[in-house]
Design goal:
The chain has 2 domains: 254 residues, MetI-like (MetI-like fold), CATH 1.10.3720.10; 56 residues, no CATH class. It contains 13 helices and 2 strands. With 337 residues, it is mainly alpha-helical. Helix 2 packs antiparallel against helix 3, helix 5 runs antiparallel to helix 6 and helix 5 packs parallel to helix 12.
Length: 337
C-alpha cells in the first residue's frame, strides 16, 4: 500500500508542475498588472497628473519585478515555493501570500468538507431510495431534485437567496461569518448558532449540487448491481430484500462512487467559492476575484495552484480508498490514468 501511495504522489508532481505553468501563463495573459491599478488609483483618488501617476507606477513596477519577462517572474515564484516555501508577496494586501492563503483557505476547506460530507450521506441515501423504488413517485421526485441540482447554476441560487434574505427578511449582515456583537467574542454556543445563520446558504447551495451528482451516480451503479447474477443468487437463497440490498448490492455499488469522490471534493470547493463570491464571505472566492481585478498575480496564482493540488489530493485519496476496497487496484497500479 505504501508503494502504491508513493507511485500516485510521484505521478502527481509533474501534473502539478504543468498546472502551475498553465495557470501562471493564463493569469498573465490579460494586459496590465498591479502597477496599472496603482496608476488608476493615483489619478482617480489622489488627484495626481497622468505624468506623475505614470512615473510612480513605473517605479513601483521596477521595484517589485513586474517589468521582468513572464518566464523570469514564474521561475522566481516557483523557485521560492520549492526552496523556501515562499509564495511571494501580495501587492494588494501588502503581506506575504502565505498569510493571505492561511487566513482564507482553512475557512473554505472547512465549509467544503462539511458540504462534501452532507452531500455524500444525503446523495447516497437518495440514490439507494431511488434505485430500490425505480419508476415510482419516490424515484421521480428524487430524480427531479437531482436534475435541478445539476442544472441550476449555483451563483443563480445564491442570488435568489440573497434577494429573498435582503428584500423579504431584511437581513443586513450577509458578508461575514458572524454578527457584529460576536466578532471578537470567544467561542460559545450562541456564537456557533450565529455562525450557522451566516453560512447556511453556502452550505445548502454547495451541498445541493453535490448530492445531486452523488445520487445519480449511486442510483445508476445500484441499478446495475441489482441485476447482477450474484444478487439473484442471494435472493434465491432466501435472504430478505433488505439484506440483499445492504449486504451485497450497496457495498459493490459504492466502488465507482469512491472513485468519483476525487472529483466531488473539488466540485464542493468550486461550489463554495462561487457562493461565497455572491455573499462576499471572507474566503478564497472573493480573494481570487479581488486579486484578479487589481492584478495581484501571486495571490491569484497561489490560490489556483492550491485548488489544483486539492484536485490531485482528492484523486489520490479516492485511489487509496478504492485500493483498500479492491486489491486489484493496488496490483494494477491505480484507479485513475
Amino acid at each position: 500500500m505504501f508503494r502504491f501511495l508513493l507511485v500516485r504522489i510521484a505521478s502527481a508532481i509533474p501534473v502539478l508542475f504543468v498546472l502551475s505553468v498553465v495557470t501562471f501563463a493564463i493569469i498573465q495573459a490579460p494586459p496590465g498588472d498591479y502597477s496599472d491599478y496603482i496608476r488608476s488609483q493615483m489619478i482617480n483618488q489622489g488627484g495626481a497628473s497622468f505624468e506623475e501617476a505614470d512615473a510612480q507606477a513605473q517605479a513601483y513596477k521596477i521595484a517589485n519585478g513586474l517589468d521582468k519577462p513572464m518566464v523570469v517572474q514564474y521561475v522566481n515564484w516557483i523557485t521560492g515555493i520549492v526552496t523556501r516555501g515562499d509564495f511571494g508577496h501580495s501587492l494588494f494586501y501588502n503581506k506575504p501570500v502565505s498569510e493571505v492563503v492561511g487566513e482564507r483557505l482553512p475557512r473554505t476547506l472547512a465549509l467544503a468538507l462539511v458540504c462534501h460530507i452532507l452531500a455524500s450521506i444525503i446523495g447516497i441515501t437518495f440514490g439507494i431510495l431511488a434505485a430500490t423504488r425505480q419508476y415510482t413517485w419516490v424515484d421521480s421526485l428524487l430524480s427531479g431534485i437531482s436534475f435541478l441540482g445539476m442544472t441550476v447554476p449555483r451563483f443563480l441560487m445564491a442570488l435568489i437567496i440573497v434577494y429573498i434574505m435582503v428584500f423579504h427578511f431584511n437581513v443586513t449582515e450577509i458578508n461575514s461569518f458572524h454578527s457584529a456583537k460576536y466578532g471578537g467574542a470567544p467561542w460559545s454556543w450562541d456564537k456557533f448558532v450565529d455562525l450557522l445563520k451566516h453560512v447556511w446558504p453556502v452550505i445548502a447551495i454547495a451541498t445541493f449540487g453535490g448530492l445531486a451528482y452523488n445520487m445519480r451516480v449511486m442510483r445508476g451503479n445500484l441499478l446495475d448491481t441489482l441485476n447482477a447474477q450474484y444478487v439473484e443468487t442471494a435472493r434465491a437463497k432466501g435472504l430478505s430484500e433488505r439484506a440483499v440490498i445492504m449486504r451485497h448490492a450497496v457495498p459493490n455499488a459504492l466502488h465507482p462512487l469512491v472513485m468519483y469522490q476525487g472529483v466531488v471534493l473539488p466540485y464542493m470547493l468550486t461550489g463554495e467559492i462561487e457562493t461565497a463570491i455572491i455573499f462576499a464571505l471572507p474566503t478564497v472566492g472573493p480573494a481570487i476575484v479581488g486579486s484578479m481585478w487589481v492584478g495581484d498575480v501571486y495571490v491569484t496564482a497561489t490560490f489556483m495552484l492550491v485548488l489544483s493540488a486539492t484536485l490531485i489530493v482528492g484523486n489520490i485519496i479516492a485511489d487509496m480508498l478504492l485500493a483498500l476496497l479492491d486489491p486489484r487496484v493496488r496490483l494494477g497500479g491505480g484507479a485513475h490514468a
